[in-house]
Design brief:
Blueprint (H helix, E strand, L loop, with lengths): L1 E6 L2 H13 L4 E6 L9 E2 L7 H11 L3 E4 L2 H6 L1 H7 L4 E2 L3 H8 L1 H10 L7 E4 L2 H10 L5 E5 L8 E4 L2 H13 L10 E5 L4 E9 L4 E3 L4 E2 L2 E3 L3 E4 L4 E4 L6 H22 L5 E10 L2 E8 L6 H5 L7 H9 L14 E5 L1 E2 L12 E3 L8 E5 L2 E4 L2 E4 L3 E9 L2 H14 L1 E2 L16
Parallel strand pairs: 1-2, 1-4, 2-3, 4-5
Antiparallel strand pairs: 6-9, 7-8, 7-9, 10-11, 10-16, 12-15, 13-14, 15-18, 16-17, 18-24, 19-24, 20-23, 20-25, 21-24, 22-23
Helix pairs in contact: 7-8
This protein binds glycine.
Length: about 425
Amino acid sequence: MKYLVIGSGGREHAFAWRLKKDEPDAQIFVAPGNAGTAQLGTNVPIAVTDLEALVAWAEKEKPDLTVVGPEAPLCAGVVDLFEAAGLPIFGPNKAAARLEGSKVYTKNLLLKHGLPTAPGACFTSAADALAYSRAHAQFPQVLKADGLAAGKGVIIAKTATEAEDAIRQIMDARVFGDAGNEMVIEDFLPGREMSVHVMTDGIGYKLLPISQDHKKLLDGDQGPNTGGMGAYAPAPFATPELIARLEGEIVEPVLAAFKKEGIDFRGILYIGIIWTAAGPQILEFNVRGGDPETQVLLPLLATPLIEVLRAVREQRLGALTIEFQKLYAVTVVMAAHGYPDKPRTGDVITQIPEESSNVVVFHGGTVQKGNNCLSSGGRILSPTAWGEELTTSRQEAYRNTEKIVLAGVHYRCDIADNVSLR
Ligand code: GLY
């Protein structure tokens, strides 16, 4: 079999790794890929947003399945284009991808269907946004640019001045470009954040193990927001009772709302949840697997990944039992000097541990230049380990992280630590 994975991060390395592990004879192509994916197959030098070139490549090479990692090509309609050309692809279509592509669309949908979410409103002008922010003078306040903003479009303002500044940055200065044509303002909800990944074929669904990402740059959840500095799964606090509430109060009503709206979602729906004193509330929808959550979910999967992806595409997920190993996985993100604002690139990386039966180092921002593996992005590597105890998986992930030599690297030292408190 021949597979194309679209993307170049740790998540896409994890998809490619899992496909190859299940099927060692498979031919793996990754566009554009990284130094890690190059070891599994062939990198294809096409940008994730160059949809025409991706379709042209797939028409020529005829992969048996294309798997889309990041949100940008999904929101741009890569699935619709592939399907129109008769090319098998895994991921939601453009209409469904709006759930991540437009915060305003999603907020209106959540409010319309009475789904659990923070009180808030949507705006098309800075003046109206400012008036609302001042009238609802309750801080922190959450301000979201409508469109995709490379993970930077959500600002938590602690004061009225910070809120006003954020509104002006988003809607007047247009720091996120057209993503700031509209915006959402909502109440800040205190609680425990968790990542809820739902595999759905538009008819039924399967819940994947509940995971937790660590979004802040520094230990103790300090510093600026990032794309994610590490993750673990399953979260020990996700008891059967908690999972039953997530399904009954969030997943099922959300999928019912999608049906009422005519949204045909087939793929991975990642619901960002905050568990407040009032129970679970929806923070956001993502229309793809989380990065770094995918790096901890895929090593735990006992069912071959391709069987799951095919069942989703063919809308027979209900008949499939997805098994997970009863283990815990931990991944630590190794980030570049200067990340997230100005990640330095071009640093040489050495001493990357070999894959073993319970460890793999997923690559994100890396590139192979001759004999050297160089950093090429903000989140560079995610050493991942799994085992019977969360604590030992954590130790193993860190033991491997510490072996890697990379100038200026930064990583958190408290991934999966004190999880009962998070
Ligand atoms: N882990 C955060 C994200 O994938 O959006």
